[in-house]
C-alpha cells in the first residue's frame, strides 16, 4: 500500500491515479469522500456550524467509491457525484465538515475498510494494493503503510497549477482568483490534519521543479526503493 498526503495542488490526485494505474493497483481519493459527505450535507440543508448534526447526517450517507484508477468515481447511493463534488460550493464548505472529529472517525473507518478490501480482493486485472491520497493517510488512516509520502510543492507552483486546472490559465489574474480559496482552505485544513510537515518515516517528494511525468516516476521510484529494502 502507498499512502500520500499533501496540500491542495501538490498533485496528489493526478499523480496517485497515474501511479496506481502503472502499479496496476486500486486508487482511493479520500478528499472525494469528504467532498461527497459535504455535498450530501448541502443537499439536505444541514447546518454546517452544528458539528453533531453534521456527524449524524454523514453517518447515514451511503458513500460508494470507485477505486479503479480509470474510473475513480464517487457516488452517494445511486447518485453519481464525481463532478458535483468538485463544485465551488462544495469546495468552500468541505473544510467545515472535515473539521468535525466524529466525521473524521467515521470516514477513517470507511477508508480503512476500502483499503483492506483493495488489498485482500483486487479487482479483475489488478494487483492487491492501493494508492491512497489525502491529508492524514500517512499519520492516521494508515501509519503502518510500507510506503508513506508527503507530496509538496511551493505555494506559487501549486496556485499556478490550480489556476490552470480550474480557469485554464496561470496568468497573474487567474492565480489571484484561486489564491484566497486555496491558501485559506489549506490554512483551515492544517488545523485539523498535519499535511505540511512530514511525520517520522514519511518521505518528502517536492514536485515544484518536476513536471507531471517526472513526479509520477519519482513516486514510483520511492515505491521501488521501499520494495527493494527488507522491512
Ligand atoms: N508535477 C506536476 N507538474 C505540473 N502539473 C502538475 C504536476 N502534478 C500535478 N499537476 C497538475 O496540477 C493540477 C492539480 O493537481 P491535482 O492532482 O488535482 O492536485 P491535488 O490533488 O494535490 O489538489 C492538475 O491539473 C494536475 O494535472
Ligand atoms: N484525508 C483527507 C482528505 C481530504 N480532507 C479534506 C481537506 C480538503 O479541503 C478536502 C478536499 O480534499 P481534496 O484532496 O479533494 O482537495 P484538493 O482540492 O484536491 O486539494 O477534504 C481531509 O480533511 N482529510
UniProtKB/TrEMBL annotation:
Compartments (UniProt record): Cytoplasm
Domain Cytidylate kinase: 2-220
NCBIfam families assigned to the protein according to its UniProt record, in alphabetical order: cmk
Keyword vocabulary terms for this entry: ATP-binding, Cytoplasm, Kinase, Nucleotide-binding, Transferase
Chief localisation class: cytoplasm
Organism placement in taxonomy: Bacteria, Bacillati, Actinomycetota, Actinomycetes, Kineosporiales
Protein name: Cytidylate kinase
Pfam families for this protein: Cytidylate_kin
GO biological process, one term: pyrimidine nucleotide metabolic process
EC number of this enzyme: 2.7.4.25
InterPro entries given in the database record: Cytidylate_kin, Cytidylate_kinase_dom, P-loop_NTPase
